[in-house]
Known about the structure:
By secondary structure, this protein is an alpha/beta fold. The longest helix is centred in the N-terminal third of the chain and has 15 residues. The protein is globular, with a radius of gyration of 17 Å. The C terminus is likely disordered.
Amino acid sequence: xxxxxxxxxxxxxxxxxxxxxxxxxxxxxxxxxxxxxxxxxxxxxxxxxxxxxxxxxxxxxxxxxxxxxxxxxxxxxxxxxxxxxxxxxxxxxxxxxxxxxxxxxxxxxxxxxxxxxxxxxxxxxxxxxxxxxxxxxxxxxxxxxxxxxxxxxxxxxxxxxxxxxxxxxxxxxxxxxxxxxxxxxxxxxxxxxxxxxxxxxxxxxxxxxxxxxxxxx
Length: 217
C-alpha cells in the first residue's frame, strides 16, 4: 500500500505566514493592520471567519503579480522540492493543507506537491464560511485525502508546527512537529528543529517503517 504525507504550510514550510507576507508586500498601512488582526486572532478574540472578514477588505487590488512576488520573496524551508520529488518517485502521495489562501498554496504545485488545499478567499471579496479552513476541518480533509488515495491512517504521516495542527496530530499516530510549539511537540511522535525539510521527512519515513517507536531529534 502507498503512503500519504500531509504538510501544513505556515510555520512548517515557510517562516511566518503567507497572510503576513502578502500584507507586508502591500505596504506599511496594510501590514500594520493585518499584524493587529493576527494578534487578536491568536489571542482568541477573532474567529477564523472573523479574521478573513477583517483582512480581505484590506487586500482589495491584490493581483497575481504581487502574489508571485511575495511567494518568491518568502523564506522557505530548504529541501522542499527534494522531499516531494522523493515521495513521487516512491509512488506515494503528498499534500499541503493550510488555513492560508488557496491562491498562495497553489504556487506549491510547481514545486511538486501532489495536492494543495487552502482557504477559498480573495482580496476584496467577503469570505464564504464554507471555504474557510480551520484546525478542526483539517481532520475531515485528511480523511478525504486518505480515501482518495486508498490509504489508511497507518499509512499517513502529518508534518506541522503549531496549535492549529493539534486536531490532526491527535487523529494520527505518525506525526512530525517541525520547529513546533511546545503543545504540539508534546503530542507529536517525532520532532525536528532546523531549516531543512529533508530532516523532518527522514523522521516521517522512520515513523512509517517503525511506527511503534516515537523519535525525538
